[in-house]
Amino acid sequence: MHPAARLLEGARRSNIGARAQRGVSLFTSYFSQHPECTQLRGNCQSATDSGNIKPLEGVKVLDLTRVLAGPFATMILGDLGAEVIKVEKPGSGDDTRFWGPPFVGSESAYFLSVNRNKKSIAVNLKDPKGTKIIKQLAQACDVLIENYIPGKLAEMGLGYEALMKTAPHVIYCSITGYGQTGPLFNRAGYDAVACAMSGLMHITGPEDGDPVRPGVAMTDLATGLYAHGAIMAGLLQRSKTGKGMHIDCNLLSSQIYPICGHKLLVGQTAGLRKVACLTQIAANFLNGGIEAKRWGTAHGSIVPYQSFKAKDGYLVIGAGNDQQFSTVCRVMDLCELVDDPRFKTNKLRVQHRKELLQVLTGRFSGKTTAEWLELFEGSGIPYGPINSIKQVFSEPQVAHNGLILEMEHPMAGKISVAGPAVRFNSFNISTTRPPPVIGQHTVEVLKSILGYEDNYIYELIKDKTISQNEVQ
Questions:
Q1: Long-range contacts of the stretch 385-390 (C-beta < 8 A, 24+)
Q2: Cα–chain-centroid distance for residue 44?
Q3: Using CA atoms, how far apart are residues 355 and 352, in angstroms rounded to an integer?
Q4: C-alpha distances out from residue 445 to 76, 408, 454, Å
Q5: Based on the number of CB atoms within 10 Å of its own CB, is 210 exposed (0-12), middle (13-18) or buried (19 or more)?
Q6: Which residue, of 109, 207, 321, 439, has the greatest Cβ tally within 10 A?
Q7: In the structure, what pLDDT confidence band is assigned to residue 225 with cuts at 50, 70 and 90?
């Protein structure tokens, strides 16, 4: 048997459920493309409500992103019930599949961390038949999200302007490094560079030391969060207007402007220009001309608000007002500081930062972290230890909040990843699909969504336009 035929036969056996669901998929796809029928769709869903209907069930997302910002956004959409179809390059797939160690079996932990609740299809976009598949899927989907360099997809006939002619209902979200236009628009976007150019790295690090990159890709993650929110806004807007739109979202703007500095394009551009991730740092400069600096763990405008070294580790405390400062002094048996004229107000404490911190640092070093945590318990003061990652996942509150998800992966076996940060009282998002292997769902998607026949799929596999993983 030809390898393509063997793959197709395996996919057929595993696709019985998909065939049974085909009518439902076509039904939900129709109503997703006809916002005027929203009420009818809602009534039909209510009639089949199993008690755990997620808000994005019936919404299809065509995911042409890779690495972190885009996959993080689509993972959240998948957690909320969307059917996310991840398009990958046959053979290699998403870049992060090879970002390791560590690997869990043959799978990189990095990829596993941001790709749950997705289906993977392997399509060669350099093949005209491959781009045709993407165009047809765009027509059947509600959202298309991509993170190519501006103009790259347009060269393939997959840009916003081209797709809007055949899929005017689609919410088309582009994630780039610097935006769709401007002097830097054609540069590749990377978290560390955007972190540097946006000023985030300038304000991160020891007070008298070098700039420091945050321990995780905060610019990518912020962009993914903003992109997810913008897509949700786009879907809401479409329910009112019946029209799709283009969302321009980029790494640089995610540190400077709200809603990632994106533009929702519906006929005309509505640019949003207010400070967001840089918050008071940007406001301080824009309104007062005050250049920011690095403070280590400390805060430029609040004292005390930083980490302190105990006998065996570190903890962080904060005193955001005079009453909290008084409580800190009482807990630490330093009541004389409350009446000290140098420390009466936060403004004075900022001015006399060094003198105050010298006293507090000396006192904190006299007890263990556990002793200080016990003393601050119930005080109303914001406080907590600086945990190692092992300690993080030993925290009872982390387990209580359901932040550890366990799944059975077809290649890696049992895996655990960090779970969703938000909980809802009307549905459960902890039931998840494991991250897919490359091309795991190619045949299923082409059959259930596009209605492709076996013979044509066989030819596409044989011609290497698509690939289907043998894992089902």
A1: 385/313, 385/314, 385/315, 385/316, 386/307, 386/313, 386/314, 386/315, 386/316
A2: 31
A3: 6
A4: 21, 22, 12
A5: exposed
A6: 439
A7: very high
Structure tokens at 169: 């209902």
CB 99 within 8 A of CB 411: no
Q: CB count, 10 Å around CB of 106?
A: 10
- Whole-angstrom CA distances from 277 to 88, 173, 225 are 31, 20, 12
CB–CB of 109/102 below 8 Å?
Answer: yes
What pLDDT digit, counting tens, does each position of 158-193 carry? 999 999 999 999 999 999 988 887 887 878 887 888
pLDDT: is 334 or 400 the higher one? 334
- The SS3 call for residue 250 is strand
**Is it the case that residue 45 has pLDDT exceeding 60?**
no
Residue-level pLDDT at 26: 39
**pLDDT tens digit sequence for 111-163:** 999 999 999 999 999 999 999 999 999 999 999 999 999 999 999 999 999 99
Q: Would you place residue 259 in the very low, low, confident or very high pLDDT band (cuts 50, 70, 90)?
A: very low
Q: Which residue has the higher pLDDT, 8 or 328?
A: 328
C-alpha 240, offset from chain centre: 26
In this structure, what token pair is assigned to residue 381? Answer: 């003061």
How is residue 267 annotated by DSSP?
Answer: S
Query: β-strand 466-467 against 118-123: which pairing, if any?
Result: antiparallel
- The one catalytic residue in 63, 79, 142, 220 is 220
Which pair of structure tokens corresponds to residue 266? Answer: 């519906």
Tell me how far apart the alpha carbons of residues 458 and 443 are, in angstroms, rounded to a whole number: 9
Please, are residues 226 and 260 in contact by the beta-carbon 8 Å criterion?
yes
Residue 417 CB contacts under 8 Å (≥ 6 apart), including other chains: 112, 113, 116, 404, 405, 407
pLDDT of 258 reads 41
Q: Residue 271: exposed, middle, or buried by beta-carbon count in 10 A (0-12, 13-18, 19+)?
A: exposed
248 assigned to active site: no
Radius of gyration of the chain (CA): 26
Q: How far apart are CA 210 and CA 217, in angstroms?
A: 18
Model pLDDT, residue 5? 56
Q: With the C-alpha atoms ordered 425, 431, 433, 434, is the resulting torsion angle positive or negative?
A: positive
